[in-house]
UniProtKB/TrEMBL annotation:
Gene3D superfamilies: TerB-like. The lineage of its organism: Bacteria, Bacillati, Actinomycetota, Actinomycetes, Kitasatosporales. It comes from Streptomyces griseicoloratus. Residues 98-222 form the Co-chaperone DjlA N-terminal domain. Pfam families: TerB (PF05099). This is TerB family tellurite resistance protein. It comes from the Bacteria.
Length: 231
C-alpha cells in the first residue's frame, strides 16, 4: 500500500479537504479593557456566519457563530461579556465618584460642622481623583444636599440618600476585590470618627455603604470597630 493511501492517510488528508470557515462582519466598535493586553484598547464587535468548505472553497452554510469582540491591538477574540468590565478610565471615574458620594453621605449624617471631619473627607476625595476638592466645597455640597432632601443632620439615612449611595456603589462593587470594597467603607468610617465616636446616624449611613458594597453586616461591624482602634 502506498504512503498516504491507507485509512490513516485518508483521515490525515480530510482536514485539508473539508473544513469550516467563518465570515465575520463588524456591527459595532468602541473601547474596552482587553484582558490579553491588560489595558484599554479599541475593539470591533463581530457577528459571524460559518460555512463548510471543500478545498478551501465555502459551500454549505453551517449557522451563525456567537457574537465576538475583537481587540484592534492584539487581534484576540473574546466573548461579549468582556464588555461588562469597565475600562480603566471608566473604573477610575466610578471609584472617584463612589468616594465622593460616601464622603458627602457621612458628612451629611452629622460631621459637616466639624473642621476635622471636613479635612479628612476632602483628603479622601482628593486622593480618589478630585484634585481641587476643598473643605468649603464639601460643606456647601452638604448644605445643598440637606436643602434638596429636607434632611436634618443627625437623622438616619433617608431613602433619597440611600438611593444615591446604591447608584454610586452598586455598579462598582462587582469589579472590586474584597480589600477594595472594605477600603471605601473604612474611608467613610475615618471621616465619621474624625470628630469623635460614631453617631447613630453615621452608623446607619455606613451600614448602607456596606450593604451597597456587598459587605455582610458582620464584616461591617468588624470593620467599623477596627477603624476605632489606632493602628
Amino acid at each position: 500500500m502506498l504512503p498516504g493511501r491507507g485509512r490513516n492517510g485518508r483521515a490525515a488528508r480530510l482536514p485539508r479537504i473539508l473544513g469550516t470557515r467563518t465570515a465575520w462582519t463588524a456591527v459595532g466598535d468602541g473601547e474596552f479593557f482587553c484582558p490579553a493586553c491588560g489595558g484599554d484598547r479599541n475593539y470591533q464587535r463581530l457577528t459571524g456566519r460559518r460555512r463548510l468548505t471543500l478545498l478551501g472553497v465555502p459551500l454549505l452554510p453551517r449557522g451563525e457563530s456567537a457574537p465576538t469582540v475583537e481587540c484592534a491591538a492584539c487581534g484576540g477574540h473574546f466573548g461579549t461579556d468582556v464588555l461588562d468590565h469597565p475600562t480603566t478610565t471608566r473604573f477610575s471615574a466610578m471609584l472617584r465618584d463612589a468616594v465622593h458620594t460616601v464622603a458627602l453621605a457621612v458628612l451629611a449624617a452629622g460631621g459637616a460642622c466639624s473642621r476635622t471631619s471636613l479635612e479628612t473627607a476632602a483628603a479622601a476625595v482628593r486622593a480618589a481623583g478630585f484634585d481641587d476638592c476643598t473643605e468649603d466645597q464639601l460643606s456647601a455640597l452638604v448644605e445643598a444636599l440637606e436643602a434638596d432632601t429636607g434632611r436634618v443632620r443627625g437623622e438616619p439615612c433617608v431613602p433619597g440618600l440611600a438611593i444615591e449611595l446604591h447608584e454610586a456603589l452598586d455598579p462598582l462593587a462587582p469589579h472590586l476585590a474584597a480589600v477594595g470594597r472594605e477600603s471605601i467603607l473604612l474611608q467613610g468610617a475615618r471621616i465619621a470618627l474624625a470628630d469623635g465616636p460614631y453617631t447613630p446616624a453615621e452608623r446607619d449611613v455606613l451600614a448602607t455603604v456596606g450593604a451597597a458594597l456587598t459587605i455582610c453586616s458582620d464584616d461591617v461591624t468588624r470593620l467599623l470597630a477596627a477603624a476605632r482602634t489606632p493602628s
